[in-house]
Amino acid sequence: MNRLLELFASRPDQYLSGEEISRTLGVSRSAVWKQINRLREEGYVFDAVPRVGYKLAGKPDKLQASSILAKLKTNKLGRPLFLFDQLDSTQNEAQRRLSEGAEEGSLILAEEQTAGKGRLGRSWHSPPGKGLWMSLILKPDIPFASAPHLTLLTAVALCRCIRRLTKIEALIKWPNDLLVAGKKISGILLETRLEEERLVSVAAGIGICVNLEQADFPAELQDKATSLMLAGGEPVDREVLLVAFLEEMEHWYELYLREGFAPIRTVWEALSTSLQRRVAVGGVEGMAVGLNEQGALLVRLDDGRTVPIFSSNIAESTPAG
Ligand code: BTN
């Protein structure tokens, strides 16, 4: 982080005189003044009181890699972090990075996506500065058939993190949509690469509508989608949410690698809005009663048979090169 910002962060809500800043940072008063002006241009707000000093009164709502990394306490997830002002899709960038050998934990984030991808070939609306649009690279040593576990695990981590941080009672709609009061707040898209029946890598694409206003959604999503800000009545700090999500995700991911799918299944079932309801999925209709060990939704048909339905959410990407 910028040393001047670090200094203000270490003395929250305090006025610091120009002299004190220049002494602490070992730079001239005019260099301090120039830096403050440069930060103002980036959207930082400083209260300046003559003969008292400056107080940091506001930060730009722009994600900053250095600030995120300074707060992140994960072992692996979120490192290295690649942050872009604009991308076509973080999933596309993840594939490009994977082709160059990106390591597990790498995170690709974009303030805006111009061609955000949803599942089933749909597009994903990703306006600038108001959401978290990201792709997380994972390389678990698991069979390809276990890929659905990762989708469900990501939904559990995100749902738990939102509940903990905002008190919003998000629920999971099978397989991995997050809903609040029946409206979608987040979507997850997994793209996998495989070799001989084993997963080589996964790009877990996660979109969270954080601070979108109602008018930010296109007409066709007006009554289907919402944001954490609309649902909770106040803006959510995207950096705080991102860091909390990565930490929660790492907790569930490590638990999964140690103990398998069973603990994830229990929590997914407890957070699900799909169970004990009639559903029409995968060409069948019936009562959703739970998940099986592979992560398929178990649907009890009207004739009494129970059938597993696998998510059509997982796209297989073609490894380049
Ligand atoms: C869905 O259809 O529900 C899945 C949406 C996934 C959207 C996210 S946003 C970040 C990542 N990049 C993309 O292009 N898509 C995913």
TrEMBL record:
UniProt-listed SUPFAM superfamilies: Class II aaRS and biotin synthetases (SSF55681), Winged helix' DNA-binding domain (SSF46785)
Name recorded for this polypeptide: Bifunctional ligase/repressor BirA
Enzyme class: ligase
Organism: Xylanibacillus composti
InterPro entries noted in UniProt: aa-tRNA-synth_II/BPL/LPL, ArsR-like_HTH, Bifunct_BirA, Biotin_CoA_COase_ligase, BPL_C, BPL_LPL_catalytic, HTH_11, WH-like_DNA-bd_sf
A molecular function GO annotation: DNA binding
The keyword Thylakoid belongs to this UniProt entry's keyword annotation: no
Upper taxonomic lineage: Bacteria, Bacillati, Bacillota, Bacilli, Bacillales
EC number(s) from the headed UniProt entry: 6.3.4.15
NCBIfam families: birA_ligase
Residues within the DNA-binding region(s): 18-37
All residue ranges annotated as the BPL/LPL catalytic domain in the record: 76-257
